[in-house]
Amino acid sequence: MKPEPGRSGTATVREDGPPNDAELPGTGPSPVGGPEPSALSVPALTAPEVFAALNGSPRGLSAAEASARQTRYGPNELPGVGRGHVWRRLAAQFTDLFAVVLLVSSLITFLAYTLEEPRDPATLQLALAILGVVLLNAGIGFAQEYSAERTAESLQAMVPHTCRVLRDGEPQELPARELVPGDLVLLEAGDAVSADCRLVEAHDVAVNNAALTGESDAVARVADPVPDGPALEARNCVFMGTDVVAGTGRAVVCAIGTATEFGRIFRLTAEAPRQQTPLQRQVAAMARRVAGVALATGALLFAIRAPGGQPFVDTFVFSLGVMVALVPEGLPATLSVSLAIGVRRMARKHALVKQLLAVEALGSTSVVCTDKTGTLTQAEMTVVQLWAGGVAHAVSGVGYGPVGEVADAGAVRELLRTAALCSNARLVPPAGREGWRVLGDTTEGALLVAAGKAGLDPAEEEARTPRVAEYPFDSDRKLMSTVHRDGDDTYVACVKGAPLELLARCDAVEWEGARAPLTDALRDRVVAAADGMAAEGLRVLAVARRQVAGAHPALGDVESGLTLLGLTGMYDPPRPEVRDAVDACRRAGIRIVMVTGDHPLTAEAVARRVGIVRGPAPSVATGAQLDALDDAGLDALLADSAELLLCRVSPEHKMRVVTAFQRRGEVVAVTGDGANDAPALKHADIGVAMGASGTDVAREAAVMVLLDDSFASISTAVGLGRSVYRNIRKFLIYLFSHNIAELAPILAATFAGFPLVPITAVQVLAIDLGSDVLPALALGAEPMERDVMDSPPRPRRERLFSASVMGRILFLGGIQAIGVCAVFFWHIHASGIPYADFTKTDPVYREAITMVQAGIVVSQFFNALAVRTDRQSVFRVGLLSNPWLLAAGGFGIGLMAAISYAPPLQAVFDTAPLAPADWAVLTGFGALLLAAEELRKWVLRRRVAAPKGETR
Ligand SMILES: Nc1ncnc2c1ncn2[C@@H]1O[C@H](COP(=O)(O)OP(=O)(O)OP(=O)(O)O)[C@@H](O)[C@H]1O
């Protein structure tokens, strides 16, 4: 799990890191303000010695000291990625296959010019034009790469990355870049470690050091001194870039920024090779194929023309020009731009995509496995029901303010007191216009509020019975336990968790004011009460207690032989925007599977509220049932159930379900927030992490981070992903079809024995790089179509250049080709001059080739409009709905007019002024192309079912 440089605890902006004296003592030059490393080794020190050595304190640093150290050591950051290699990266733009072919062509053309007798300025022009193409292409590529990098950096910066520290004795949440040496960091499972630290307190801490060691197994960490040794092996140190996967602890920061172990490795790591997405690879492969065709065509034309009496150099330069003209210059850059536009649009809709790959995968998502709390619901829990001693109580009042009240029965107070003691959340009183806020887990916050409503003060209770040990909640056990001192030498364990899990560990129950053995009959009544709450969509937690011997009993002793105190039921309102998003996914043929640790009845009630379940009987499978299924059984379950809820599952189940869906050929998006969701997030086609509530580990493993945690943002991102794919297809059809229009007249003239070219290489370059680039970009930025979510997902294996795409390229290119051949030969024949008498300077010839170039430009304008829709009439979508496209097309025609009428450009392009009637003829041809497309779409619409992914 290697974090990208600049992620874990760092942002990628600074060129210079903090000074080296902020390093981990014992591994580097010197600790902060301490003696020389030889005299001191932090791993070997006791906790008080660590504080002394780093000028820290168990209450953390003071605000003033922290700010002084920040000035001294600078921010906790790593330098930006890949900066400082500008020249190398610019040079790399000239080494790709296209660039090399073009450079060699330019050189040969230049040599041909020097050998020519007499020298023809057109040959020199061509050599320079090809060189210009290479420079322009490299410039676009470089600028594009640079801007993609900036986008990635700014997106990274938007992903919240904070850490918790103790300053002036108060816990605070800080941006990781503000950490300074000597800070006391509070760590818990799911945190990414933001600096190199020495643990001074550790409760079952385990970390994953994969980013540093490549070893992905969790390793235990302790707070005790350990003997000197290699830094990474110090069992009481945690390092930047690694993750805490279990336990809680406190640690003192020893090194930040580039002085950390991660910083050292980062400095040594060469820039990672840029990964291409499958889409980019397909386009590159297609471009190479076209380049191959161009080469073959050039060679063929040379072979045909060489024996025909033309000067050798002329024929050679001509063939080379044709070849260069057919190379799809600028295509990869256009593709990257349109993917980057998609990424930016998604970011505006709260979905941060970390890799371009996700943009295209999103478009073909067919299954979304979603969490419940926070994603479908608002994660604002309120305890609305209590059940204690066989009696149910309603809790009035809403929100976090202690406005309502609960029945002040003794049993209820004990239930809430125990629940509050067993909570890590904190309630922050209203500040200004804000209401009460919960710090920490919202489930626990709701319990604290309920305790407040019963007249209890959680802080006072904690002071009376201080906590001496904690066994944190984990979604496998579905329980959390704490141990408290409640007398001189007596201890009580407070346990809360999922009702069935907790009941299995109880042997007594508080019943009508007394402790009664938990008989089967009583157990059934508890289960019935829990089911009743769950069926109303409430999250149910059971609470139990027992006396234990000693302050640190084994987990097995704490979580057995318990006495059940009662149940709490909390309501979490669904997010209002989710219903529409769920509808959109349904229309788009995307299956939504709810994956939750909650009770099946709670899950079903919530699923109904947000529209995931509509039928009378959804399939519900629990984690235990999944365990009992082999792979074939799981496949059958996934295949047979249209509405599926997976309940009481752990993150391991999530992973299994994702894999099973992928076996069925589905493209799976999965949400996750916990550290142990990371494997499923990584394995899924699109791992979606929660930006607001998720853990750092989940955010690192995911390719998409939702800033607002809402399911609706996933649905929007899928829509945008589809739209990006459609747009790419549009401009590919647009660009490749005109290649046919460029090649056809050349071939026709060659075979008809016409001695000159119907369009020169320089003219073709003017089209490819002048008039076609902007419309292609405008097509790549087409707004999201309204019907984008009205068709089923694109099949995983569908190729970008599918038969239908190739068919359209041939259809549109074919019409254009017929049009330009017709105008050229009509012009030539109308003059009555025999073919053999034509020279390059002949006005009729110059007019004819101007007609060919203008014909392609004008028909490309109509072509751009035609490719905007697949099957819907473009007039229904609105001719004006993409003003950029019209402006880009207008620019192309303006450029063409300049080439036709401006004398300096006429000299460069060998063109002639066109008459208004000529433009009218060309516009007529263009309109015919649009009409033919409209007719084709009309026929398609008349056909019954739409092929997948093409409804427009
Ligand atoms: N802080 C907690 N302490 C004790 N038990 C808890 C706590 N949070 C949740 N539980 C219990 O564990 C069960 C599973 O919770 P978990 O948080 O693993 O589910 P989840 O998959 O995150 O749920 P969701 O899909 O609603 O987000 C809950 O139904 C609840 O009964």
Describe the structure.
By secondary structure, this protein is of the alpha+beta class. It folds into four domains: 37-80 and 159-268, Calcium-transporting ATPase, cytoplasmic transduction domain A, CATH 2.70.150.10; 278-345 and 717-942, Calcium-transporting ATPase, transmembrane domain (Up-down Bundle), CATH 1.20.1110; 352-377 and 575-709, Rossmann fold (3-Layer(aba) Sandwich), CATH 3.40.50.1000; 382-571, Calcium-transporting ATPase, cytoplasmic domain N, CATH 3.40.1110.10. The chain has 33 helices and 26 strands. A hairpin with a 2-residue loop joins strand 17 (506-511) and strand 18 (514-517). Mean pLDDT is 82; it is low at 1-40, 269-275, 399-404 and 946-952.
Please outline what is shown here.
With about 950 residues, this protein is α+β, with helices and mostly antiparallel strands. About 45% of the residues lie in helices and about 15% in strands.
